[in-house]
Amino acid sequence: MDTNFNLYLIRHGETYLNRYKKMQGWADSPLTEEGKAVAAETGKRLAAVPFDRVYTSDSGRTVETAELILQQNNHPDNLVINRRKAFRESFFGSFEGEYSEVVFRKIAKENNCANTKELFQNHNLEDVMNFFKKSDPFHHAENYKELWGRIEVGLNEIVSSSQSGNENILLVTHGVIIRNIISKFSNEFDKGMEIKNSSVSVLKYTSNMFEVVSFNQ
Asked: Among 12, 21, 24, 118, which is 20 to 30 Å from 102 by CA?
């Protein structure tokens, strides 16, 4: 049997640290009330999609977002939410909780870039992830190899666990994770673009390959 499925890749709803524009990797703040409402709206947009499997990271913000989405679904099948560390947000080390603007300004300056936009224009995602680890005074932040290594474990589990063709799989995860997955399988999208909270990106898996169908909608 050929493995084929649609992967609905969704960023979690807005959290308080998102609202305050602070770095949030393994740190985990609750969804704001607006974040809950927008997640529910995404659920309504996907209400007609019969999901066969559901995955999230092991962070509370992705689990709650998945629950809000599934509450709106027209095919309530009491699906188990598979929580996986593989899909946890990138770890930002000692930058966790710092203002994002401060962190990116530091990383840009240390790598001879005027600002964040120039950083992403001049360097690929792998470079930027490696800069985080280099710039972190403790060097605890994840680099690209560490991050992609666990993402790949998670994606391989999703593929190998396929029981039937034409499945619809929901994966609620994080901005950096989504950006890296999309960039891995497509060169068409702006790698510096902000991934919107509760946005939907769709990938189709067929013939042992992922293809990006839509991004950040």
From this structure: 12
